[in-house]
Design goal:
It is built from 36 helices and no strands. It is mainly alpha-helical.
Length: about 650
């Protein structure tokens, strides 16, 4: 053991034996500057000089990761529950995987809390165990893995198993098809070659074999699924391949709101090797076509982790009631968890349970909570990041607080939430509140800057609960946040959208960077959409997120359906979740402000359901948020996002 390892053990043992992590903001910033300078000696000296400076020890371990894992391993093993230690465990796994140090990978994986491990890391562990022991991998794990898009380490695991003849013949073809529909062509070629499958040009349409057909139809279905369906119908291939492709094409058709064709395709598919996404779209297709028995059957075939979500418990009950099985439906609704979320509130309302907002609860003092040392460390890091404009510390502090929240009971979560509000960390405050088993509504749904929201809501003729709902979802009321996609401030205005609105309102182009103007412009924009869509917040909010052009198309496609089903059929995962959150937020803010009960059923019934309420004009028609990462409904319309 070298001098550094010996010293770092001594230093860290001193840290964990102390009652708190005593580090000043100035010292924390000094630690960071030493770390940023890439001077290992300097950051190590800081760690050894101040034995209560856990951050210096953490940064010293980080700085040595490329050449020496031991400091990080020692740090992690002394207190594996410490949020900084968990952060290091992921980095140790990354480095040991890269260096193929399988013994270290296995040891750290087994010592890391299971809930913190990703599928990618689990595949790395399976690969490490296989290489070390040559024992076969659990068949059920392989079957489940090859149904969905596989991350890098899962791909490496599959390739290794394939090279050693460990993938059963009945799993090989769906494995290759999975790679093709997810456009992972280099991995397809690797495994195909290992199994002596001829390396074809996948784009060759002259006389396509089954692999070329899967690739070509899956690519065609992204943009024109109706053409893909016609080509599939005319193709001459084996039954399994056709059924596999019918499943894929059915999902693409539904995403394009071609529900009748999607029903034809899904009825010609099968339930083997469906991705999680295909399982969900299969149920949505049956819902959109009023096929209640098929809806029930499709939900029952979902993986249990999907079946047991609030969403699919609700739709199972919905189908049961449509079939006249009211008692059975109510029993299913009773299994939905009680939380201030869209499907939970919907289920409780249908059961006649419409809770009111409870009185505010006085939280405990932060110093009395079980994991106070971790919480203090998180708050100190975040505050130092704010003081020195250091985004690294703000992000690290947030991570530490989130992990601390995961360990804490409800009373302690409320104390963390309250402390976060005191320090102006509203996003963490809300996060702590919504992670409570019995959510404190008052902590989870704050109303900062209320005077400004009221002022601009009144000017634009909309309920104040709407811009509050948007801001809570967009920024968690963090007035200074700038998102990775460029969204700014409370209402996450994109610069182009803000410039457009500024011209309409006669304000400066840059004023949206200050919170009063951000509220003014954001409220104008959501109000403009709200009025265009006939006071229908489903499409006003989805238009705010994905663009009014898309929202208008969805409104026409879903006309006449129950409003909760309209939200569920929104094709973008991001926008669907966003819209359901906005509706929930508005319902709750209305209840808080007007002392009403939380009746989601009545609330949804009051939403306008006309077939066309959108008015074309020269206002911004491209939406606000960037959703480039969700291409599920991309085509050429008037939305530029």
């Amino acid at each position: 053991m070298n001098k550094f390892n010996s010293l770092i053990i001594t230093a860290y043992l001193a840290i964990i034996s102390s009652t708190s992590y005593a580090t000043s903001p100035a010292q924390l910033q000094n630690d960071y500057q030493a770390y940023q300078s890439n001077d290992k000696t300097k950051i190590t000296d800081l760690a050894l000089t101040n034995t209560t400076d856990i951050v210096a020890n953490y940064l010293a371990a980080l700085s040595n990761l490329k050449t020496n894992l031991n400091p990080a391993i020692i740090f992690f093993q002394q207190d594996p529950k410490n949020p900084l230690a968990i952060s290091l465990s992921h980095k140790i796994l990354d480095k040991s995987y890269e260096s193929q140090d399988w013994n270290t990978y296995t040891k750290i994986y087994n010592q890391t809390e299971a809930s913190q491990l990703s599928q990618n890391e689990t595949c790395g562990q399976k690969l490490a165990n296989y290489i070390l022991s040559q024992k076969s991998i659990d068949h059920d794990f392989i079957t489940q893995m090859i149904k969905n898009k596989m991350p890098d380490r899962c791909l490496s695991l599959i390739a290794t198993l394939s090279a050693n003849g460990q993938i059963p013949n009945n799993e090989l073809i769906p494995t290759l098809y999975n790679l093709l529909i997810h456009n992972q062509t280099s991995q397809f070629n690797q495994i195909a070659n290992q199994n002596k499958i001829e390396n074809y040009q996948l784009n060759d349409t002259s006389n396509p074999n089954k692999y070329q057909l899967v690739y070509q139809i899956s690519q065609l279905a992204i943009k024109t699924p109706d053409e893909a369906l016609a080509k599939l119908e005319q193709s001459k291939t084996d039954k399994f391949t056709k059924q596999y492709l019918y499943n894929y094409v059915a999902t693409r058709l539904a995403i394009k709101q071609m529900f009748s064709l999607a029903l034809i395709a899904t009825n010609k598919g099968h339930s083997s090797y469906l991705t999680d996404d295909q399982f969900e779209w299969k149920a949505r297709i049956f819902l959109a076509n009023n096929q209640w028995s098929d809806t029930l059957a499709s939900i029952k075939k979902m993986p249990k982790i999907l079946q047991d979500t609030n969403k699919w418990l609700y739709w199972k009950a919905y189908a049961e009631k449509k079939l006249g099985r009211n008692k059975q439906g109510n029993t299913t609704l009773g299994k939905v968890s009680s939380s201030p979320s869209f499907y939970s509130l919907l289920a409780r309302s249908e059961l006649g349970i419409n809770p009111t907002i409870p009185a505010k609860i006085a939280p405990n003092d932060i110093s009395s909570i079980k994991y106070y040392d971790y919480a203090k460390l998180g708050f100190d890091l975040y505050s130092t990041g704010t003081t020195y404009n250091n985004s690294y510390y703000k992000n690290l502090g947030t991570y530490v607080l989130y992990r601390t929240i995961a360990y804490s009971n409800d009373t302690d979560k409320a104390a963390i939430s309250n402390q976060a509000y005191k320090l102006g960390i509203t996003d963490t405050a809300i996060y702590a509140a919504i992670k409570m088993d019995n959510t404190d509504i008052n902590l989870a749904f704050p109303m900062p800057y209320l005077d400004s929201y009221i002022k601009y809501s009144n000017e634009n003729g909309i309920p104040v609960s709407i811009p509050l709902a948007i801001s809570r979802q967009e920024s968690r009321f963090n007035a200074t946040v700038v998102a990775f996609d460029g969204g700014v401030g409370l209402m996450q205005l994109m610069p182009a959208t803000a410039n457009f609105i500024a011209k309409k309102l006669g304000v400066s182009n840059n004023c949206y960077k200050d919170y009063p103007c951000n509220i003014q412009e954001g409220t104008w924009f959501i109000a403009d959409l709200y009025h265009k869509f006939g006071n229908n917040l489903i499409y006003a909010s989805s238009g705010y997120n994905a663009g009014p052009g898309r929202a208008r198309r969805w409104e026409k496609a879903f006309y006449g359906m129950d409003n909760q089903l309209q939200t569920e059929l929104i094709p973008f995962d991001i926008t669907r979740t966003y819209t359901q959150h906005i509706l929930t937020n508005q319902l709750i803010y209305d209840a808080i402000l007007n002392k009403k009960s939380l009746n989601m059923v009545d609330y949804l019934k009051q939403i306008n359901n006309k077939d066309q309420t959108f008015i074309d004009d020269n206002n911004n028609n491209s939406g606000n948020d960037s959703i480039d990462k969700d291409t599920s409904d991309n085509d050429n319309d008037n939305s530029t996002n």
